[in-house]
Amino acid sequence: MRNTTLCYISHNDSYLMLHRTKKENDQSHDKWLGIGGKFEDGESPEECILRETREETGLTLTQYRYRGIVTFVSDVWETEYMHLFTADGFTGTLTDCDEGECEWISRDRLLSLPMWAGDRIFLNLLFDPDQPFFSLKLEYRGETLIYAAKDGIPLPID
Question: Which of 41, 83, 121, 138 is the most buried (most CB within 10 A)?
Fold first, then answer.
């Protein structure tokens, strides 16, 4: 079991996305994700997302919000608890990332990018600024989403 963070940074109706292309044996190879990564020992979710954002982008978050937790269950990978954030305040200059290419993607184009099916579910939740903190469970068989539940209530899978 592992803990990770993921943040969707917005600016001018666009989101900073990472196209995962550079790491070998990357379970998210060629998919687009927000910014984040694995906890280091002793880190809180907030400390992890601040560190990961600096490491992957060169940016320092100045305004961010903890929005939810996603439990990923898979028949291939270990269970993961992903702590979701949104941010709309930052300082610094975007730098190169050793995991892929970072690019600002307009919100209307975001959901058409290659990504995990479950990511579309939580992105739609994150797009609603009034959405309260949520718990989302996503279960995969290989790369196929087979089950989703929000706050314990099953969701339809497209």
Answer: 138
DSSP state of 34: -
Spans in the chain with pLDDT lower than 50: none
The rounded distance, in Å, linking the Cα atoms of 83 and 63 is 16
Contacts of residue 127, Cβ cutoff 8 Å, sequence gap at least 6: 107
SS3 142: coil
Architecture in CATH for domain 2-153? Alpha-Beta Complex (3.90)
Element (H, E) at 87: strand 80-91
Q: Measured between alpha carbons, how far is 22 from 134 in angstroms, rounded to an integer? A: 32
What are the phi and psi torsion angles at 138 (to 5°)?
Answer: -125, 125
CB distance 56 to 99 below 8 Å? yes
pTM: 0.93
Rounded distance between C-alpha atoms, residue 135 and residue 146, angstroms:
17
Percentage of the chain surpassing pLDDT 70?
Answer: 94
Residue 93 neighbours by CB distance under 10 Å: 7
What does 31-44 look like in DSSP terms, one character per residue?
Answer: -EE-EEEEPPTT--
Beta bridge partners of 82: 4, 70
